[in-house]
Structure formats: C-alpha cells, structure tokens
Design brief:
Layout lengths: L3 H81 L17 H56 L3 H27 L11 E2 H9 L8 E5 L5 E3 L1 H20 L7 E7 L3 E7 L7 H11 L17 H12 L2 E6 L5 E8 H4 E3 L23 H4 L78 H4 L13 H24 L12
Parallel strand pairs: 2-4
Antiparallel strand pairs: 1-3, 3-8, 4-5, 5-7, 6-7
Helix pairs in contact: 1-2, 2-3, 3-7, 3-11, 4-5, 5-7, 6-7
Length: 508
Amino acid sequence: MTSIPQALLWCLSAGTAAAVVLAALLVRVRKERAGLRTRLAAAEEHNSATLHSNTELSARLRATEAEIRHLAEARLPDLTLALAHPHVPVRGLLDKRFGGSPTDEALAAVLTQVSEAITKERTRVDAAAQSTLRGATTTIQALLYQVQTSLQTMQHTYDDPQIAQDLLNADFLNEQALRRVQATGVVCGAWPGLTREDSYLAELVVGATSRLRGYERVQVSNQLRDPVAVVARAVEPIAITVTELLANALHHSHRELPVTVTLQQGNRGASVIIDDYGVGMHDDEIKHAMELLAGADSMLLTQLGDPPRSGFAAAGQLVRQYGFGVHVEPSPYGGVRAVVYIPGDPLLTVLDEGARPISVMAPMPHRAPGGPRDRVAMPSALPTGASAPATPAAAVPTPRPAPAESFAAPEPYPAPAQSAPAHAAPAPAPAEYVAPEPEQPPAEGELPRRRRRRPTSEQQPESNPDTINLRSPEETGSRWAALQRGTESGRAAAQSEPPRSPEGNAQS
C-alpha cells in the first residue's frame, strides 16, 4: 500500500507537468492569435485600399464619361460653329484634372479629326455650289447682254418719246440685274465677261457710276495731270470694283447726301478715292472688309452672310487676279473712305487726246491754265470725238463720232448763210488752241457728219464737269428721245438730199 506522501508527490508532479504543458499551449495560442490579428489588420488595410481604389476608379470613370458627354454636347457644337464664325470660342475640358493626360490628348485628337473632316466637306460642298453658280451666272449674263443689245437696237429703231423712255427704264433695270449676276459670278471664280479697249480712267468711273441707282448723287472730280487710261484687260475688273464700292457708299448713306469720287495721279499710279457721308463701319467690320478685299483663295460662299453680300468679295477676287489694290478706312466725313489704287506699270497707259478725245460725259481734269493740254479741258469749238454711252446703264462709254451737243435736241441743218465754212477762222480761244482739220466728204452711201459750234456765251455753263450729275432721269430720257428724233430726221434727209460738205451745207 502506497503511503500518502508518495501520492502527494505524484500529484504534484502531474500538476506541474500539466501546468507546463498548459503554459506552452497558452504561449503558442497567443502567438497564433497575434499572427491572426496581424494578418487580419493587413487584410483590412488591403481591403480598405482596394475599396479606395475602386472608389477612385469609379469617380474617374464617371468623370471620363462626363468629359465624353461634354465633348458631344458642347465642344463639338462649339467647334462646328467656330468653323463658320471664328469669333465663337470652343469650350475646354470640363474637369481641369484631365489636362495633359492621355484622356485630354485623345479628346483633342477627336476635335482635330472632326475639324478636318468638316472643313474638307464644307470646301467640297462649297466648290460644287460655286461651280453650279458659275455656270448659271455665265449663261444668265450672256442672255442679259443679248437683252441689252436688243434694247439698244430698239432705242435706235423707235423715235416715240414715251417708248424711248420705257426702253431706257428697261435697259437700266437690265443693267441692275446684270451687275448682280456679274458680281456673283466673279465671286464664284467666273471671268468678268467683257473685253474692252484701253479706256480713260475718268470714262471708266463715269461708266461705273451709271450702273447704279442714285447715280445722280455721285460727284466726280478729275485731278489727273495726264490723260491716264486703263489697259484693256483691266478695264472691266476695275469698273466692277468701283461699281461695288460706289454701291456700298450709296446704300449706307442718306439719299440726300452726295458721294464724292476723286481721281488722283501719283508717281507710280493712279487712285480712285470714294468718300461717303453715311453711317460708317465699326473696327471689326473694317477688319472683315479688308479680309474680303485681300482676295483669299479659301473664301467660301457661307462667309458672305445671309443674305450674301458679294460686293467686297468680288472686288477681292479681282484684286487678287489683276494686281490692283483696294483699301477701306473711316472717312474724315464720318462715313467710309474706299481707295482703289491702280499701279501704273502693268495696268495704266496714256492715250493721245488728239487722236481719241475723251467722252463728253467724263469730267474734265482740273489743270492749270496755259498747260499743254489746256485746250482739251476748255469747252471750245473743237469737234468732239466721243459721245455718251448707248444707255445710262452702259458699263464704260465707248468713244465714237457723235455731235458735241449729244444731250440737246438736234436742230435742223443750218442754212448756208448761217454755217461757217471749213476754212473759216475759229472762234477766239487760248494760244494753245488748234483748229480742227477739215473732214473729208462722206463716201457713197455714208451719212453726212456735222459739227456744231457753240457761242462763247453758251460755253461757260458747261465748264463745270459736275452739272451732268444734276440731271434727273426724266430729263435725261427726254434728251435722248430728242437725240433719236434728230438722228432719224438726219437719216431721212441724207437719203433725200444731195451730198453735203463737212459743215453740213449742200454742194453748190
């Protein structure tokens, strides 16, 4: 039988061993718990980072979607509008944090590609429209020239005053339509449509004035020193340009205010200076006008406005093609000043006034008395070798033999006792006066020609070149009708009477 002390010893040993085992287990459990807590904390941190990253990605995705919607709803419409109107701004990024990022570069590439595609398509469509208009205006312009020729033929056929007045009105309306069609065709790249001979600059300006409503308001002052003329190839382009500038001046000024035109001659060319007293133009309008007058190659019809205003655009195309210059600026009179500069080397020439006198409708140059061409500027008994254009709407007066008093009612042929013989002494005139050479008798079947001499008392009122601008359309029409009646009576007399001398007297 075992004693009690031994039993207690065994119990203590067993308890100690158990305590040691339990302590070891406890340490191990605490280590595992600490490890689990560390892994749990790491997992929680990773989970938190993942959630934060997911949140950022979601926000960035939403911001990217918003940028794409902003591109489609705002930036692309702004771009299409800015291509038509350069002053319209294109909005930028909705979120500035995308600046310089790949997203910004991708969106900018989209805008660039869309802009190039729209520009190419607009250019293609505009070129097709210009081609269509060019063909249509060329055909219509040819038809209007035929109508003009028919009206002029009818004016010489019928001598009734009322019919003559109606024909003049119809011819003037036809000229208005012809000017609009011609300007539209020039904008679309068409040729001006007329070929003329070398023409005096003063005649060209008067012809351009006659194409417009309100031409009686235009006052032309000729300050040229020499008989300056425009070469044939540039006559019609410069006439179109001056016409459009005058139309702009007349349209934007009161109908009771004049429009002054001054012809100036410089060392390297000549200038046509147009001043109006109208409402003027703002700085941006002048800038836009100068851009049109520069004659850019890439001009589109959509840039002309609605309704399209083709005057400056047509002038710009002609400036680019023929080499003269146009400048617009505020006028010292409050309106607009337009200057057409014609370089002398390629576009100007000097004509012989003796061989080809200037038209009676053109203003006489303001030259100093006693100058080498003073006899041309002064109204005298010299025969005038140019007459008014066939109609008030004629483009440029074409010099041709006609009576000097072309706007007065022709009188019957003077009696032999009243007419001066060919060898008679001329009327008193300055020392530079040159007597006209006697004309040759008319050939068989040719109408006789006569030259009227006006008294000195009648010459003074015509010394003012601007008096022709004061006549009303009705007075002009009645004078033309009287001229036609005189022409018809002269033709009838030529067929029934024997040949006459150059002074209009019957042969003795």
